[in-house]
Every structure is written in structure tokens, then in C-alpha cells.
Amino acid sequence: MTEIADHIVSVGVGALSIADVVAVARYGAQVEIDSAAIEEMAATRARVEELANDPTPVYGISTGFGALARRHIPEDMRAKLQVSLIRSHAAGTGPEVEEEVVRALMLLRLSTLCTGRTGVRPVVAETYAAVLNAGITPVVREYGSLGCSGDLAPLAHCALALIGEGECRVDGGPIMASADALADAGITPLVLQEKEGLALINGTDGMLGMLCLAITDLRQAAKVADIAAAMTVEGLTGTLSVFDDDLQQLRPHPGQAASAANIRTVAADSAILAAAAEEFREKQVQDAYSVRCAPQVAGGFRDTLTHAEQVAVRELAAAVDNPVVALDGRVTSNGNFHGAPVAYVLDFLAIVVADLASISERRTDRFLDTARNRGLNAFLADDPGVDSGHMIAQYSQAGIVHELKRNATPASADSIPSSAMQEDHVSMGWAAARKLRRSVDGLQRVLAVEVLTAARALDMREGAPAPGTAAAVGALRQRVSGPGPDRFLAPEIEHTVELVKSGTLVTAVENAVGALQ
């Protein structure tokens, strides 16, 4: 990933891509602000300063916030107002949020600042970029955001670091004072002026950042699911005929067609399936739903992911703040900070993640039961009774799937009023994003166990596997031994999880059969 880390992401009036977010958040790519953004920020800042001198109260510039918006703040107290806002809103609690999530939300807040619609001075964005490039990651806590008005508490913790307060880590090091980290990097702490504190915290950046990261991981997981399904069809001596393209076209969902094509490609030219074909026609007739309907479930997952990506792309093009400097120069309140559009797809993804994991677990379970595994040892054990084989690996899958089903309960269906009923309907998008992150990890682990189990079954069959499935087994066998007496199983599962998460498994298969859809 060195080439990604060396990539420079330009931040300006145009939209970032999902790949840009991942490059900066996960791989430490540097950012630069384009000159057009500097000019736009300077122009709209002039409008904010004009209104700051106007005796008529303007929300966010010369008033309090939320339920306190009716109080007019005198000019000599406005700098204190902005600092007080950041300090009071940095109220997160609980475990520390992952570095890649914090970096993602920082980049996305920087992107909104660079649109010029927030009315901050260019130095605010320049300081933000410098902090990102120096590897300074503010400490953000798990709880504190309701997803409306944006991710207030997480963003406030980041803003606190910009003014030289609070805590941070540098390049994953120990927690230290932000003032010291800025000093070590030669960055001058910000001195906030009118509107700037509010502009630093009023956005959907945390939930959007987690959505971008999840989309990236789930695109990879979609391919892994198809590889795993292909390995299972072959390991259970099933049939590929149900995945024929003309059958998929009878129900023209694009995700279904792509998934079926991948399964056909990965399992093509299998000597194991060829040898078992006649017996299948005479005795088996049909595979179970978890095998036969793999493209329908994985395809629905893919199509949901495409919808989520469309929402993410729209949100990446947004300037989320309140108030905003509109294109005609007026500074006006709005509701664009409400996280509902993002929260809905975060919850939707949690639902399809749970179902994709569920069908994977059901396929794994078929390998372990002699009534259904078509001639393999019970639990794929070397000596059943003495050995337990993969019995408890399936337990681990089942435990994860249970949690994923609980995570599928939508956060966005709930709302708890806040700010003395001024903010009386909130999105809970941050909570939706946090549980989706756990679900993504769970899905990757469930798929890894299916791959590990299917590979063991393939090694126990007579005949050569397909080139695609053989490549998957080969990648696994570099770290995990083949069938034999019971061994310490947890490390083997973790090695397989790493193959799934790193993309190594998909790369090995694609090197053998070509790019998958």
C-alpha cells in the first residue's frame, strides 16, 4: 500500500471520492488544498465578517447555539463563544475511536471547509490540513454523537486539538497533550473567530467516513462471499448449472448476475464436480437453498451496496454546515446537518451484512453433518470421535451471526430529543455507523471460517479442484496446514481472517482466473 500512502489528495471545491477518503484515513496519504478553495474561503469569509459587524443577530455568528440561539452575543465575547462551544461539545465518553475513523472525519470536515460555504478563514482549513499531514489524530470517544446536528462531540474533540487543547496521538503513538503535538510539528494553534467553532463541528463527517470505509471493505467481502460459495459448491459436489447466465437474466438484478458469474468463474473446470455430475443428477437433483440461492442473496447484498455508494457519493459532494454561506452570499440556517440519508443506508447495510453472513454460516454447517456433506467425515474430523474437526469453528460463526442479527436492528428508527427540544428529532447515524463497523468485521470472520472449512473439504475429496478454488486453497495453505488430527484452531482462523481482510485471498484467485466482478 506504499503507493497509496505516497498519493496526495487534493481538497477543494470539488467532491472527494471514496478512494480519497480511504487513502488518507487508512493509509496516511497526504492532503493539499487547491488554490481555488483558498480564494473561495477568503471571499465568503468577507461576507461573514460583514454580518458580524451588523447589529441584527445572525445565528452562529452573533448568537448562541441550539436552544440558546435567541441570545445575542456582544462582539467582545464572540471569540470566547467559539472556544466555549468547542470545549463544551467535546463531551465524548467511552472507548477510543479507531484512528482511521478519526482521520476520515477530519478529512471530510476539511473538505466541507474548503467548499467556502462555511465562512471560515483559509487559515482554519490550512491548519486542519497540517494536522492531518503531521499524523496528529485527536482522541475521540465512542459515545457523544446523535447524528444531528451532525457528529458534534467527535468533531469537537478534533477541533479541540486545533486550538491546542485536549489529547491526541501522533502516528499511533501514546496519548499526549495536543499542545505538545502541535508544537513538535511546528503548527500554530488556531485562534477562533466568529462562526469558526460552529463550522468545525457541524457535519455528518464521522458517519460518512465510516460509511466510506465500510463500502470499501464490503466490496472486497462481496468477492470473498462468491469465492467461498464456489468452494462450497465444489466441496459439497453440487452443481454449477443453477448459476448459468441465462437463468440469472430471467430475474435481471445486476448484483445477482455478477455474483453468479463469479461463482461460475471460480469453480470452472473442476475435476471434482465433473466426476460427481452423474451421481448428482441421479441422486441429489438439487442443492439446498444456502448453496443454490447464493447469487440471489449475495446479489441483493451487492445491489444494496451500490445504493449505499450512491448516497455516499452525493454526501461527499455536500457542504454540510449550519448556517451556510449560500451561493448568492446570504448566510442562512438550514437542515442539511441532519444525518438521516446516511443513517438509513448504514442501517440497510447492517441488514444485508447479517444475511450474507447467515447464508455463509448455513453453508459451513452442511460440511459438518454426515447427513448432508455427501460422503465426508463428520465435522471434517480426521478421526471423528477422537477429533472434533471444525465443530466449534461453526459455533464461532453462529455466535457472530447472532450478534450481526442484533446489529441489524436499525438505529435510525430511534430518536431521542436533545437541546431543550430544539433538536427534537435526530438521526442516530453515528450509532448506525459504529454497529456497522462491528458487523463488517463479523462478516469477514464468518466468510473466513467458510473458506477455511471448504478448503479442508476440498483437500479431503478425490480429484483436482478448479483452478480458481485451487488458488484460494493454495493461498490458505501458505499459512494453514491441510487436514489432519485436531490442532489449535484459533490461529488458523485468524490467519484466514487476515487473508480475507488484506485482499490476499481475492488477489490469489484473480491471478488464477482473471478479475472478478
TrEMBL record:
InterPro entries membership: Aromatic_Lyase, Fumarase/histidase_N, HutH, L-Aspartase-like, Phe/His_NH3-lyase_AS
An example Gene Ontology biological process: L-histidine catabolic process to glutamate and formate
GO cellular component term of the entry, any: cytoplasm
Database matches in PROSITE patterns: PAL_HISTIDASE (PS00488)
Keywords, sorted A to Z: Histidine metabolism, Lyase
Metabolic or biological pathway: Amino-acid degradation; L-histidine degradation into L-glutamate; N-formimidoyl-L-glutamate from L-histidine: step 1/3
Major site of localization recorded for this protein: cytoplasm
Record has Protein biosynthesis as a keyword: no
Annotated localization: Cytoplasm
Catalytic activity, reaction form: L-histidine = trans-urocanate + NH4(+)
GO molecular function, one term: histidine ammonia-lyase activity
E.C. no: 4.3.1.3
Similarity remark: Belongs to the PAL/histidase family.
Protein name: Histidine ammonia-lyase
